[in-house]
Amino acid sequence: MANYIYRNYTVEYLFDKRYVCSGYGDVTKPSGDFDNYIIFYQLNPSSTPEEQKMEIESIKSKISYILNSEIRERIIIFSLFRDVNKDWEMKSPELLEAIDDFNLHFLKQHSEQYKNVKIVDINTFYQSHSIPFVDWRFFFTAQMVINPKLDKPFKKWFEKQMEALDLKRKKCIVLDCDNTLWGGVVGEEGTFGIKLGMDYPGNCFKRFQHLLLSLSKKGVILTICSKNNLKDVQEVWENNPHNIINDKVLSAYRINWQDKASNIKSIAEELNIGTDSFVFIDDNPVERGLIKKLLPEVEVPDFPKKPYELVDFFWQIYHSYFVIYELSEEDLRKTEQYKENFFRNESKKTFTNIDDYLASLNIEIDIMKANEANLPRIAQMTQKTNQFNLTTKHYTEEKLREMVEEGADIYCANVKDKFGDNGITIAAIFIENDQVVHLDSYLLSCRILGREIEKVTLLKLIEEINRDKKKPIKAQYVPTKKNSMAADFLDNIGFVHIKTDEKSGIKDYVFDLNKKPIIKTFYNIKFI
Amino acid sequence: MEDKIKMIMARVFEMEIEDFPAEINQSTVNNWDSLRHLNLIIELEEAFNKSFEPEEIGEMTSMEKIMEMIKK
């Protein structure tokens, strides 16, 4: 691709080799074929306001001349830099008015008259930069009207503008929920406890949601991929009046504990668009890192640290991935179409029962005894896993090693399915004494929940311990602020509840030895 | 410092470091034209956190002079 630039100042440093520059102020049609003709005229910032007004008139006549030279290819005209500091009068800033007239009327007229003329606004580029637009050293030595230190951001910005003119835009935003669409964690703070509403910081998230909703009306598809209980999020959708990004505006959603890369792939399949048209928005750098690694074609912008930065963040995303020269009817209809598609596919894919679904996943669980290779990971899990954790005891690597030496049975397990390998995500610690075996710790990473893996793994471990030790197995649930999701777990897998300590809420259990644990056959569990 | 400058020159002049002559100046390096000269200055300003005066920029046409101005 070759492009030609009509210019009146030095601009070579702002473009790469695919661009050829005219002589200064030369308006003649170049020989040779070009795909785009760019008209990039700016004003001499050292001139008086009167001189600059004259220069605007001369630029207008140059442009008219070029447009009359029968160029059929695309012509891209730059607006003038809106210099707000070069006027004598406050009441009628003549130069500024002349610049605005050029940008808003003269250019618009011509782009309506000539279908191949497109306008690019230099002011959208400069808006977000803190260094001076002009570096006088380079203006007076090399006729550069734009600070050469802005060259890299300029190239990036101009590339985006060209993509927008070529109608290349991303199609779909994948949103996280907690600390992205609202502040806080809905699983912990509840439908009305999340920060979303009229006060800071809830008002920032509310504005962010409103901007996203308007974006969806411009043809961008909104989806959610969140590690949460679907029910918790649905309660927000139904009952929290401040929440406006819900199943009515989402074209697809995956709210579960699976890894986000598989979820995004499955959203892409449902909507029948490539993952290279996705932008992934998540406050969690780990999730972002995972997507960058597993789906490098997905755009993954950094998420702002403070809620009050969300408005800027939205527009930055818009201008980076979704900016468009002109909206078509088609764009506006798209969201609806995708939504219909989603529901069609969704019903096609419905399994009549959960077992069929789980069987389809080809879940493999590899259980290992603690060893030097996995001890650091087990220690890390005891430190970091707070939600699905029966006793929430934190151990260091050294402490775990000592426990192993004293005879504790420490296990961990690696979980994978057809969507990918989750790595070591389960840990269990059994401590034996004369009469009983205690389940000292049992914990799972949240990302593998929802597939009954927590049940079958513990049952398998109990089977193993039983065969080995032939002693009653006791267990406890120690409630904390965060582990309520594990509250009824032991009851559900065949433990008998003995007592609950009234003060601490600690529940004691013993496993019913007569009960032969039944493990569904589609889980492929082995000790390695 | 010389190596760092050479690396920047290699990038700006689109050359391999090995291909630079022993004495580096505007007349011994073919690709060192006036536009790339400014690119070089801008890259040097960024890399060494300097801001050169126009008179200095005009003089910085050899490795020796460039090092002298950066050290100034």
List the SSEs and their pairings.
The complex is a heterodimer of chains A (528) and B (72).
Chain A: E1 3-7, E2 19-24, E3 36-40, H1 49-67, E4 74-78, H2 94-113, E5 117-120, H3 122-126, H4 136-142, H5 151-165, E6 172-175, H6 186-189, H7 202-217, E7 221-226, H8 230-239, E8 252-255, H9 260-271, E9 278-281, H10 285-294, H11 310-322, H12 329-348, H13 354-360, E10 364-369, H14 375-384, E11 388-389, H15 397-405, E12 409-417, E13 420-432, E14 437-444, H16 453-469, E15 473-477, H17 489-492, E16 495-500, E17 507-511, E18 524-527
Parallel strand pairs in A: 1-2, 1-3, 3-4, 4-5, 6-7, 6-9, 7-8, 10-18, 14-15
Antiparallel strand pairs in A: 10-12, 11-14, 12-13, 13-14, 15-17, 16-17
Chain B: H1 2-13, H2 34-48, H3 54-59, H4 63-71
Helix pairs in contact in B: 1-2
The shape of chain B, in one word, is: globular
Instruction: Write the element-wise H/E pattern of chain B from the N-terminal end onward.
Output: HHHH
The low-confidence runs of chain A, each spanning 5 or more residues with pLDDT under 50, are 343-348
Q: State the low-pLDDT regions of chain B, or none.
A: none
Query: Mean pLDDT score of chain A, rounded?
Result: 89
Structural class of chain A: alpha/beta
Radius of gyration of chain A (CA) equals 31 Å
> Cα distance, first to last residue of chain A?
57 Å
Q: Treating each run of at least 4 consecutive H or I residues as one helix, how many helices of chain A?
A: 17
| Main beta-sheet strand count, sense and barrel state of chain A | 9 strands, mixed
Largest interface: A-B, 11 and 13 residues
Proportion of residues in helical segments of chain A: 25-40%
Strand content of chain B: under 5%
Please, what is the average pLDDT of chain B? 92
Largest sheet of chain B: none
- With helices defined by DSSP (H or I, 4 residues minimum), what is the helix count of chain B? 4
Shape of chain A: elongated
